[in-house]
């Protein structure tokens, strides 16, 4: 009775017990009737085989069919057919797939946004650190110049302050000798670990 109800088979067709009429009625309800008929023929021409199919109906429902031979004492005496309406399951699967795709798209978009924000933050931090280092060096140079009277005493301390705050291993001050028009190193500083 469940089979009859699922397919909506009229009592008049069931009463005839005519398999051809039954198959014709069912065939008209399917999106791909030729596939259905080929699978039915295949099952009947191979009575020992099992079969599994998904059938889509014109009204949007989806049926899952599993069939296998019924055996008694090793002999095939008929077929067992399991028919289930899996429409809701398929719709739920499609909805889950759609939601997963949307979530994946959102994650990719958000990851891109975060990567851009991270790069912007790195640039801002680099500019901020550079500005902060410049202010520290400016303060140190002002302090050195205020404490040391002659420029010759202040110059090595200025080079050292700049190198230490900028992370340099070595630094030098070059000046143009106006008499000879030659660039000369007037002072330098280096890390003690460097041999100059």
What would your notes on this structure say?
With 196 residues, the protein is of the alpha+beta class. The chain is built from six helices and five strands; from the N terminus they run ααααβββααββ. The longest helix has 61 residues, at 87-147. The radius of gyration is 44 Å and the shape is rod-shaped.
Topology:
Elements: H1 2-7, H2 11-16, H3 19-27, H4 33-45, E1 51-56, E2 62-72, E3 75-85, H5 87-147, H6 151-166, E4 170-177, E5 182-190
Antiparallel strand pairs: 1-2, 2-3, 4-5
Describe this structure in a few short sentences.
The protein has 196 residues and is of the alpha+beta class. It has helices at 2-7, 11-16, 19-27, 33-45, 87-147, 151-166; strands at residues 51-56, 62-72, 75-85, 170-177, 182-190.
Molecular shape: rod-shaped
Total of DSSP H or I helical runs spanning 4+ residues: 6
**DSSP strand (E) fraction?**
15-25%
Average of pLDDT = 90
Strand elements, count: 5
Structural class of the secondary elements? Answer: alpha+beta
Q: What is the gyration radius calculated from CA atoms?
A: 44 Å
Point out poorly predicted stretches.
Answer: none
């Amino acid at each position: 009775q469940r089979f009859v109800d699922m397919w909506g088979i009229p009592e008049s067709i069931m009463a005839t017990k005519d398999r051809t009429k039954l198959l014709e009625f069912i065939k008209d309800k399917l999106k791909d009737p030729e596939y259905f008929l080929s699978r039915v023929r295949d099952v009947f021409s191979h009575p020992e085989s099992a079969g599994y199919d998904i059938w889509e109906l014109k009204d949007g429902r989806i049926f899952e069919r599993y069939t296998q031979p019924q055996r008694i004492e090793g002999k095939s005496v008929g077929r067992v057919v399991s028919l289930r309406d899996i429409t809701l399951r398929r719709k739920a699967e499609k909805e889950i797939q759609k939601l997963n795709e949307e979530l994946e798209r959102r994650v990719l978009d958000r990851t891109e946004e975060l990567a851009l924000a991270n790069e912007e933050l790195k640039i801002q931090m680099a500019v901020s650190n550079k500005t902060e280092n410049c202010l520290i060096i400016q303060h140190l140079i002002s302090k050195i110049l205020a404490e040391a009277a002659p420029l010759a005493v202040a110059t090595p301390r200025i080079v050292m302050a700049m190198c230490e705050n900028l992370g340099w291993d070595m630094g030098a001050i070059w000046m143009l000798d106006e008499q000879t028009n030659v660039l000369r190193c007037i002072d330098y500083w280096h890390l003690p670990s460097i041999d100059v």
